[in-house]
């Protein structure tokens, strides 16, 4: 036998928005031989209970409800009746006919709830946050609607607010799941393309309203409400996706901060579709084979460069819709360019796996080793084609850069300065000439170099050549390939006008051909032979260093010579491992790159395991065996 009593303090708690268990009073309640239906409808002038056929949904009888207490609370006692299927009908500001959200049972899987309660929702379990939290379209008791669920420790009341209820936290309070800090509510009906948030009332009386961190879509910034939407896109990259993990390829990444890469004629950042077309053409032309985005998960503040993530499952609305983001990735893939997302601000494996699957990412930048291992476990063999370990070798890059910032007359020994850096032939970390090194008024790599104008660019060519030839994957931050002096502030567009100057156009051409060299020489991209010792053997004499990078075959080996001094060195004895003839295949001192033109001409013949070459001042050169 069930008892129900309509208490005035509970009615007041509902109308004040302080009730922590709305299902205790709202909805249908059996009491002996009668039943009550209660609803809080503050925008209605009148309300009715419509009894319907449970199987067909056809109306049977309409009961008028009485408004009691505070405005908007309606009730009706239906005598001599058990529970039945019904809808609510309202008149007034928003006349409607709808299923009562408080007539449904739990809309979440109790198994997933217990995983959270028991702590079995860790990154190595089969728990998926989007199967429980946030907003999910479901069918409950034959009725289509949306299940909302949030874990809110410390909250006494949590509500769903949105366009569909006037953003009134009193209208759709959620039910606390017994013995937990989780709140859930099923709202029937079509809520697609409507905005929503959650509102929480805490024990101290403070109220907070926040967007759904699990949402897949957000309204256009600067608004930050979540949006219920269905993601539908027809991908055309099947051939790319099938072959991307089947061959070993160099990893040469172009890192971008999308809002400041380029602006349109009106001064606004390019949207996803515009950026995809322009950036794919540029990246392809420059010889990079991956583009890496600074975080594009929905973020709070433009000053945070995307790292202050608020919606980890949604591409930021600033530049378009999720499907337009998909189209951008699709376009990059059509040009043979992989897409990487910087996700160091995300700690959830489900989220990272979701992005890889939903948006066809080819890699993610993470720095936490435990997270990387967990992601690999989650992805299984399906993730073999995805780069999950793209950690930056910041110490090595900083040490080499700092050495190049020293005036040449004071540089001393390169090997002493970089002591402790393991130059490993099989290094697969990312040598990132990244935004980190040019942000916060640090200036560009060009501005970091010492000396006069010509020496700065000679040193800059040497720095980029050296880092490209040392082991490891490669990354260059946008704009640094132009050789401009401006750093990165997250607000100012790249100064493309610097290409009007010879020094900058020469340097851009240098980077383009250096990328081509890296792409065509398997020795440079680490796809070489498995040697007994993998440490790089760097020879140093004075201010000149040399070393060999081993290819798939001895004929694929390349020999690197770097002169860090201000004097040309002639007759430098470069050790080689194979007899025969050699020639210089690349030199930063070439006239076409803005150099002095003192690079080596013709062929060099090996004698006693060496060839004699010229090492021009502040230069980088590559030699190869002539077959």
TrEMBL record:
It catalyses: Transfers a segment of a (1->4)-alpha-D-glucan chain to a primary hydroxy group in a similar glucan chain. The keyword Glycosyltransferase applies. Residues 134-215 form the Glycoside hydrolase family 13 N-terminal domain. InterPro entries: A-amylase/branching_C, Branching_enzy, GH, GH13_cat_dom, GlgB_N, GlgB_N_E_set_prok, Glyco_hydro_13_N, Glyco_hydro_b. Residues 540-625 form the Alpha-amylase/branching enzyme C-terminal all beta domain. Keywords: Glycosyltransferase, Transferase. It comes from the Bacteria. Belongs to the glycosyl hydrolase 13 family. GlgB subfamily. Catalyzes the formation of the alpha-1,6-glucosidic linkages in glycogen by scission of a 1,4-alpha-linked oligosaccharide from growing alpha-1,4-glucan chains and the subsequent attachment of the oligosaccharide to the alpha-1,6 position. This is 1,4-alpha-glucan branching enzyme.
């Amino acid at each position: 036998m069930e008892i129900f009593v309509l208490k005035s303090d509970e009615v007041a708690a509902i109308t004040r928005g302080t009730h922590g268990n709305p299902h205790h009073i709202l909805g249908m309640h059996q009491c002996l031989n009668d039943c009550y239906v209660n609803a809080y409808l503050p925008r209605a002038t009148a309300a009715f209970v419509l009894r319907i056929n449970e199987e067909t949904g056809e109306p049977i009888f309409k009961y008028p409800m009485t408004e009691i207490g505070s405005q908007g609370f309606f009730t009706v006692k239906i005598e001599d009746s058990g529970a039945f299927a019904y809808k609510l009908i309202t008149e007034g500001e928003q006349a409607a006919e709808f299923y009562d959200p408080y007539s449904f049972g739990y809309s979440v899987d109790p198994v997933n709830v217990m995983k959270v309660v028991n702590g079995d929702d860790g990154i190595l379990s089969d728990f998926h946050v989007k199967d429980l939290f946030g907003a999910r379209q479901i069918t409950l008791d034959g009725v289509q609607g949306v299940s909302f669920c949030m874990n809110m420790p410390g909250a006494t009341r949590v509500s769903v607010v949105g366009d569909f209820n006037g953003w009134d936290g009193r209208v759709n309070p959620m039910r606390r799941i017994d013995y937990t800090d989780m709140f859930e509510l099923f709202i029937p009906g079509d809520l697609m393309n409507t905005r929503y948030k959650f509102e929480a009332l805490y024990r101290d009386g403070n109220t907070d309203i926040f967007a759904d961190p699990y949402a897949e879509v957000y309204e256009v910034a600067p608004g930050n409400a979540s949006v219920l939407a269905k993601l539908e896109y027809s991908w055309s990259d099947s051939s790319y996706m099938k072959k991307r993990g089947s061959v070993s390829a160099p990893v040469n990444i172009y890192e971008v901060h999308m809002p400041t890469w380029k602006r349109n004629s009106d001064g606004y950042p390019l949207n996803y579709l515009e950026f995809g077309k322009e950036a794919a053409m540029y990246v392809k032309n420059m010889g990079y084979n991956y583009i890496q985005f600074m975080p594009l998960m929905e973020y709070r503040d433009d000053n945070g460069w995307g790292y202050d993530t608020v919606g980890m499952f949604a591409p930021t609305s600033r530049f378009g819709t999720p499907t337009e983001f998909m189209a951008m990735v699709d376009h990059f893939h059509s040009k043979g360019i992989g897409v990487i997302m910087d996700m160091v601000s995300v700690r959830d494996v489900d989220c990272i796996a979701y992005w890889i699957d939903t948006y066809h990412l080819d890699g993610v930048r993470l720095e936490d080793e435990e997270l990387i291992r967990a992601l690999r476990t989650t992805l299984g063999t399906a993730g073999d084609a995805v780069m999950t370990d793209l950690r930056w070798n910041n110490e090595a890059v900083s040490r080499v850069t700092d050495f190049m910032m020293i005036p040449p007359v004071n540089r001393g020994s390169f090997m002493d300065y970089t002591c402790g850096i393991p130059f490993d032939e099989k290094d697969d970390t990312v040598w990132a000439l990244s935004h980190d090194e040019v942000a916060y008024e640090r200036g560009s790599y060009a501005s970091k170099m010492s000396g006069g104008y010509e020496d700065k660019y000679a040193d800059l060519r040497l720095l980029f050549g050296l880092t490209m030839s040392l082991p490891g994957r490669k990354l260059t931050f946008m704009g640094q390939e132009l050789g401009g002096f401006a750093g990165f502030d997250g607000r100012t567009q790249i100064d493309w006008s610097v290409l009007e100057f010879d020094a900058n156009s020469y340097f851009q051409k240098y980077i383009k051909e250096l990328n081509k060299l890296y792409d065509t020489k398997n020795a440079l991209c680490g796809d070489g032979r498995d040697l007994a010792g993998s440490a790089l053997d760097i020879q140093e004499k004075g201010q000149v260093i040399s070393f060999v990078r081993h290819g798939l075959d001895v004929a694929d080996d390349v020999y690197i010579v770097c002169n860090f001094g201000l004097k040309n060195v002639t007759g430098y004895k470069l050790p080689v491992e194979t007899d025969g003839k050699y020639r210089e295949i690349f030199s930063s001192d070439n006239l076409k790159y803005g150099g002095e033109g003192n690079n080596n001409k013709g062929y060099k013949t090996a004698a006693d395991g060496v060839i004699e070459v010229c090492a021009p001042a502040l230069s980088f050169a590559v030699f190869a065996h002539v077959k």
